[in-house]
Amino acid sequence: MNKLDDQGQVATDDASARVTEIAELYVSVRNTIRHMIAEIGLPTDVASKPLLTKLSELQSAHLKVLAAEEAFHAQQQANQSDADIDYDALRADIGSQLDRLRAATDAG
């Protein structure tokens, strides 16, 4: 491997670690919000307006976290196809095409 390939692998590993960290953060935030909603409990007739407002805010925040998480994972899946490129195979293919062109030029 050359230096560029080594940096590419380190960058890929760092990005993978960051994706894992973000995914764990989303899980933590979702669990915290669910816990807070559970502590408030179901709305009752005697529930105060501030309590109902806070419950509504928590539910809204939970939906926003879920939407952000889905968008994040969709973006990661869209970028995943770039990571599946076999650069060694591409180099070999380009090299063989160049060799054929050189051979044809030399023969002609």
Describe this structure in words.
The protein is 87% helix and 0% strand. The protein is mainly α and 108 residues long. The protein has one domain (3-107). The radius of gyration is 26 Å and the shape is rod-shaped. The model has no long low-confidence stretch (mean pLDDT 80). The longest helix is centred in the N-terminal third of the chain and has 38 residues, at 3-40.
Secondary-structure blueprint of this entry?
Elements: H1 3-40, H2 49-83, H3 87-107
Helix pairs in contact: 1-2
Keywords:
108 residues; 3 helices
Q: Determine the fraction of residues in helical runs and give it as a percent range.
A: over 70%
* Integer tally of domains: 1
Helix and strand run:
HHH
What is the structural class? mainly alpha
As residue ranges, the low-confidence spans are none
Separation, N- and C-terminal Cα atoms: 36 Å
Basic shape: rod-shaped
- Percent strand: under 5%
Radius of gyration: 26 Å
Q: How many strand elements?
A: 0
Mean pLDDT over the residues = 80
User: Number of DSSP helices?
Assistant: 3
Short description:
Helix content is 87%, strand content 0%. The protein is mostly helical and 108 residues long. It has one domain.
